[in-house]
Amino acid sequence: PDEQLDLDDGRWEDIHVVTGALKLFLRELPEPLVPFSHFDKFIAAIKIQDPSLRGRCIRDLVLSLPPAHHDTMKVLFRHLCRVVEHKEENRMSVQSVAIVFGPTLLRPPSEEGNMAMHMVFQNQVVEHILNHYGYIFAD
């Protein structure tokens, strides 16, 4: 049934509850926001040494995502950029947001392999998209 959500309910006042709910929703998706088919491509792209080539590669990968993934990513990252704009008050820098959302938004198809190594690159991808939002999602 259509559940009506009362955002004035006191339990939504704690930002950690809202953030936790968002992360849980994203984690429970059958496929992550960055589809499994794109995981290795994003990891390879973030490892490119040349900054302008790396930037073009990541932008092209984001553009190649299925429309639902691309459009959701655009809205989510626009919001996360706004969160970062208030880092003085909320202590959520680009790095902090990347640490919180990296492993949720980009997951390898299987949990084998070097998880710690993956995590570094997952976070770097999210950081890159946050830092270059205007270029990646130029309308």
TrEMBL record:
Keywords: GTPase activation. Pfam families: RhoGAP. GO terms for biological process: signal transduction. Residues 1-137 form the Rho-GAP domain. The keyword Nucleotide-binding does not apply. Gene3D superfamilies: Rho GTPase activation protein (1.10.555.10). InterPro entries: Rho-GAP (IPR050729), Rho_GTPase_activation_prot (IPR008936), RhoGAP_dom (IPR000198). It comes from the Eukaryota. GO terms for cellular component: cytoplasm. One of its GO terms (molecular function) is GTPase activator activity. The keyword Membrane does not apply. This is RHG27 protein.
